[in-house]
Amino acid sequence: MSEPEETFYTEDRWQNWLDRLREESLDPEDEDSARLLLNLQDDAAIAVAKIVSAYEDDKLDQERTAEEIANIREIVLDDVAFDDEEKRMLVDGVQTSLVCVFYAAEEYVVGGPADDAAVAEYVDAAVDAEADEDVDAALGYLVQAGTRIIDGDELPMDVVEDLEYGLVSEWVNGLDSLQSAMADPEVVEEEDD
Fold first, then answer.
1. Highest taxon of the source (predicted)?
2. Which of 11, 65, 161, 186 suits a disulfide with 55, CB 3.0-4.6 Å?
3. Per-residue pLDDT tens for 92-105?
4. Which of residues 189 and 79 earns the better pLDDT score?
């Protein structure tokens, strides 16, 4: 008898987070607001980590794994309707951070971990590519870094701390969530009342 199929992430789960954000007064400088946004991001990264782990444990085949990752990506990266422009921009930042997480997971499932360089070297290459305004190359390097993180390599914090704000820093922020999720894929509680 086969096991029932696990549901890794749902539209309802994402909407519950968005509803909570709508109710809160968000200030990115406020620790509680920042934590709420980080929890939103970490929750999606944890779902991705669980899918990749299920794949590594032979509980999912390659095709189903790719479908599950694509499903979360579609839910999370869909346009978000917020009346409050600042909240919409904050959610957009979370979505941007997660782009690299989804692509790294997909790349890992299809091709395994990148083996040309260490995580820090990929991050450095991404920084250089961003400086040259080659955003696609920058994302590509960070996707490669992400495959190594999934494989167990660490994202060096000194590299992260030196990043100037931009797309690369946003994507690396997502990879940091992915690294935490791979290390400890515990569900982030939606409500902490």
1. Archaea
2. 65
3. 999 999 999 999 99
4. 79
Tokens of 84: 């409050």
Contact (CB, 8 A) for 71 and 51: no
Q: Across residues 48-62, what is the average pLDDT?
A: 94
The model's pLDDT over 60-69, given as tens digits with 9 standing for 90+, comes to 999 999 999 9
For the chain, first and last CA: distance in Å?
40
Cα–Cα distance for residue pair 105/44, rounded to 1 Å: 12
**What is the spatial distance between Cα 10 and Cα 191, in angstroms, rounded to a whole number?**
16
Q: Which two tokens stand for residue 175?
A: 């990879």
**Contact (CB, 8 A) for 45 and 178:** yes
3-state secondary structure at position 100: helix
Side chain identity at residue 86, one-letter code: E
